[in-house]
Design brief:
Blueprint (H helix, E strand, L loop, with lengths): L2 H4 L3 H13 L5 H10 L9 H5 L1 H9 L6 H14 L7
Length: about 90
């Protein structure tokens, strides 16, 4: 994707990534591996990683959930932190 066109998605990328994570389409490990793979990449390749930086940091720091109640609590905290509550 051309960087100029990628800018059109800046506003929504973290929301999309959150929903993919929340609906278990994309696993936490995959997101964290993607972030790790982009650490030494060119700046243009880090465009979306930078956009999702706070979400990725939250994934790294969030405690593991043990049951459905913990999972729901984690989901609501993330939704609140990334301002996607209205879209849940």
């Amino acid at each position: 994707m051309c960087l100029e066109h990628a800018r059109e998605f800046f506003w929504s990328f973290t929301t999309i990534l959150f929903h993919l994570y929340d609906q278990e389409v994309v696993q936490e490990d995959a997101i964290l591996r993607w972030d790790d793979e982009k650490k030494d990449a060119d700046e243009s390749d880090k465009t979306f990683v930078k956009q999702a930086e706070k979400f990725i940091q939250w994934l790294r720091e969030a405690p593991e959930e043990d049951d459905d109640e913990d999972k729901e609590r984690k989901r609501l905290v993330a939704a609140s932190a990334f301002d996607v509550r209205s879209q849940l």
